[in-house]
């Protein structure tokens, strides 16, 4: 055997878990923030649907109204 070969580097050293993996902590924090954001948006959306009045439609311009009536063949009043 080679004298420089040291078997002690392959011996299982007792390594105790000193807490959670830092990568896991970051993942949990980012995941938690994302879930909180999505749930908060949903709750706010549902609240707004119940409390806010329905949005008003944009007024149709008279030019567009006239063009649509001409397409349908209806005589526009005042013409």
From TrEMBL:
Keywords for this protein: DNA-binding, Membrane, Nucleus, Repressor, Transcription, Transcription regulation, Transmembrane, Transmembrane helix
Pfam families cross-referenced by the UniProt entry: S1FA
Chain intervals for the UniProt region annotation (Disordered): 57-79
Compositional bias ranges of the Basic residues kind: 57-69
GO molecular function: DNA binding
BP GO annotations: regulation of DNA-templated transcription
Keyword Metal-binding: no
Keyword S-adenosyl-L-methionine in annotation: no
Cell location: Nucleus
Cellular-component GO terms for this entry: nucleus
InterPro entries for this protein: S1FA_DNA-bd
Membrane-crossing residue ranges in chain numbering: 24-48
Function: DNA-binding protein that specifically recognizes a negative element (S1F) within the RPS1 promoter.
Family: Belongs to the S1FA transcription factor family.
Name of the protein in its database record: DNA-binding protein S1FA
Lineage: Eukaryota, Viridiplantae, Streptophyta, Embryophyta, Tracheophyta
